[in-house]
Design goal:
single chain, 10 helices, 2 domains, Heat Shock Protein 90, about 400 residues, alpha+beta
């Protein structure tokens, strides 16, 4: 069996109409039927007409919020009949509630129609009072009644309507703000995930690639001294990788009271150079820079790290040249190595290395280019820099023997 449900607004409107009907009957029974204790304009009106008029007015009133246009039109028609049967206090009270409802719930067109009708009612009431009594005090009382029963409910309904509109607007704005905050949070999380992915790639791929090449070189050599040197370099690379992983874990765990050591900095490029040499790639490096802002320092280190990794993986044993120069506004990085014989001059790194280098550069407002020219791979980057210390640090490393 289907359960019959009634709209809450409809139920409320019917309850209000019933309450007004009961009030009207009480006024009739208490002999408070007409204004100022008067008599109906038409004396031959049957006794039951005011009751029917009240019932019809309340029936239309039951549509006060769901169909205010019908409620207004119906009540106006009833008031025309009631004018000859009274006019009665009860019907006017019902109409005052309909005026309030139209002002609050009605459309713009319905509200304009109500305004016109109210002006006509006020004009007719004032004219009738002056013509019928000739007493200005009666006319004043009539206008006060019109104000109380029509103007005041209309103003009150309009005020509540404006308040509701403002509340809805504020609610919509709060919802939009909340949705924007959620989107910003999602974007921040996505950006953080991409950053973590780049960091993991730089740490894991760079160090593991170097370790793989170094151990391969150690397996091929028969010189105990060379093997020991390679193994020491492998251990140093492993310790560096573990240190950087530990730093990332501390940052992710929210250990704000811990100041992790700066492992990704140009001051430690020599570790990268030693690892490349241990893998069999001669390296010549010229690095001239002042103390840099942390973001620029880290980005420069990661770019050089990835460029060295690409060179040792895709062109093992080839000579690598690193040149880092700084002027007043930028830090310039260039890492080059020859294209291996018998290979096509295509860009290396089919994975994420080049993409990560470009993102590293753009994260600090710089640019990065990867090109192949005259048989050499070249990674060049230009990063804007903020000099934190005017004391220059110059490091020049000549070509190694391995």
């Amino acid at each position: 069996m289907t359960k019959l449900t009634i709209d809450p607004d409809r139920r409320r409107d019917v309850a209000v109409a019933v309450a007004f009907f009961v009030l009207g009957i009480a006024l009739y029974v208490g002999d408070l039927r007409y204004f100022f204790g008067g008599e109906p304009l038409v004396s031959v009106v049957p006794e039951w007409v005011p009751y029917v008029a009240l019932a019809l007015a309340c029936a239309f009133q039951s549509l006060r919020s769901t169909r205010p246009d019908i409620a207004l039109g119906g009540c106006l028609a009833v008031m025309v009949v009631d004018a000859f049967a009274g006019p009665t206090i009860a019907v006017w009270i019902v109409y005052s509630d309909v005026v309030y409802s139209v002002a609050r719930y009605g459309s713009a067109q319905t509200r304009r129609a109500m305004l016109l009708a109210n002006w006509l009612i006020a004009a007719v009431a004032l004219t009738t009072a002056i013509a019928g009594s000739g007493d200005w005090r009666i006319a004043l009382m009539v206008m006060l009644l019109v104000t109380a029963l029509i103007a005041s409910p209309a103003s009150y309904g309009h005020a509540i309507r404006q308040h509701q509109i403002a509340a809805d607007s504020e609610r919509a704005r709060a919802q939009a703000t909340e949705e924007l905050a959620v989107r910003e949070q999602e974007a921040a999380i996505a950006q953080e995930r991409r950053q973590l992915a780049r960091d993991l790639h730089d740490v894991i791929a760079g160090h593991l690639s170097g370790i793989a090449l170094q151990t391969a070189a150690a397996l091929e050599t028969t010189d105990p001294a060379t093997r020991e040197t390679v193994l020491r370099t492998v251990r140093a690379s492993s310790v560096d990788a573990l240190g950087e992983m530990r730093t990332m874990i501390e940052l992710l765990s929210g250990s704000d009271d811990v100041d992790p050591p700066a492992t990704a900095t140009l001051a430690r490029v020599d570790r990268l150079i030693d690892a490349a040499r241990a893998a069999g790639s001669p390296v010549r490096a010229t690095i001239v820079h002042s103390r840099l802002a942390p973001a620029t320092d880290i980005a420069a280190f990661r770019i050089i790290q990835q460029a060295i990794t690409n060179a040792t993986v895709h062109s093992p044993g080839s000579a690598i040249e690193i040149d880092v120069q700084q002027d007043d506004s930028s830090l310039t990085i260039a890492v080059t190595n020859p294209v291996p014989d018998g290979t096509t001059a295509a860009l290396p790194d089919a994975g994420h290395g080049i993409t990560n280098m470009r993102m590293r550069a753009s994260s600090v407002g710089g640019v990065l280019e990867v090109s192949v020219s005259q048989g050499r791979w070249r990674v060049s980057a230009q990063l804007p820099t903020i000099v934190l210390d005017t004391t220059a640090s110059v490091s020049t490393t000549s070509a190694g023997s391995r």
